[in-house]
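Replying to the earlier thread about multi-chain prediction with a worked example.

Input:
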Amino acid sequence: MRRAFVLSFALGIAIAASASSLFAGSSNRKDEGTSTTVVSNADADIKRALGEQRFRANCGRCHAAPQKFPPRAMSTVLRHMRVRATITDEDMRLVLFYMTQ
Amino acid sequence: MRFLFTRVGACQWRRKILPRLIGAILLQLFASARLHSQTADADKPVPILSGNAGFLTSVTAGQTLLDTQFNPVLLVPLGDRWLMESRGEFEGEFQRAPSGSFGGPVNKHLDYLQADYLANSYVTITAGRFLTPFGVFNERLYPEWIRALQPDPLILPLGTASSDGAMLRGGFPLNTRANLNYAAYVSATSIGVNGVESERQVGGRAGVFFPGPRLEVGASWQKLLQDDRKNAFGFHLAWQPRAVPLSVHSEFARANAGSGYWIEGAYRLSQVSTWNRVMRRTEVVGRMQQFFNGAIGFDEAASLGLPTANTREADFGVNYFVQDGLKVVGSYGRQLSSSGNFNQWTVGIVYRLLVPLGKGEAR
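Result:
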């Protein structure tokens, strides 16, 4: 009985993790779709302006704008800052665009 | 369904169906993880060695101190959702001995070593040793290359010792005019490793940021779950008005060990037209702070790094940003307390480094 309970508990966790992963996956795929879309110059300008605005509002609260680092390095920095400064996911993506484009 | 509750059914469920079901789910999880990892190379983050190095000379009440600091920060992203991050602190504090030469200890600390899991857009789960989110100075403004004045605020030791445990944190928009950020944590008393001790406590911090006026206000709370089980709480404020290049920060904290506040304004002289090339790289700073003794003794206060008497202090400083990540700093402060008044001068240079440990450019 106890073993069944343990197995059922493990199953519950596995289902929860799976559901969470699927849920996350759907949002991720949506993001990938966005990033692979050919962005027109006008859209890029808007995103860049929004990114700068978000940078000044969020990152500028603590420090000045750093130089633009290589995109993959900047991606790590932004992941770190999302955790450290508790900025929203949307802000992180726009700031990343601004800092790398 | 009733079949599962019979003895034979339960046995079959346990032996045959359940392992297959778990296997199928694990397979799905694995496939899902592989799918997520197939992001564009351009967005794929690489490990980074960052941090800062600084050399400061301060004269406090006539006593010269040479302070050399190196704070390496290692960031290792794993997949799309994980980040391992760590910061160490190596600090040499050298004072002039009676013989005339300088000497002193080199202190080593592990500030944090944590694993972050970006669960979704609004939640990050953190486990390990982390900076305690009490107020904002400890988490956001502490690095030498970020802080506007090099001397620590007097209330910094209140509630900010690193924690060993787990934390939930994140941020999300409340509406178009306000974003909420939060952090909630639980810390174990000790994990049995020297140098990474912590206290058993729970706590949290919440802040609301208004992007329009660029104003953030927030509050922190902490409950000690050992010894005297005291509460601590604090408030913080950050404001960057749009019209002028001014940055205002302030914190208030109250704990068993003491209470106090500080308010600081940093003004970038970029709007000064005379010598603009120099002025736009120059920042002037002022800070006012006050500390009130708590219900602890002289020795305990000193060991925590707190003033041993009620204290007031005013500081003024100038920072010059030579180039990105490199700044020259200078400040003067006057401390007034019943245990004695004195001046504090600080000059130095601080540098922020960032080295990608992999191909930084997109392939």
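Chain A touches chain B through 52 residues (CB under 8 Å).

Feel free to reuse this layout for your own posts.
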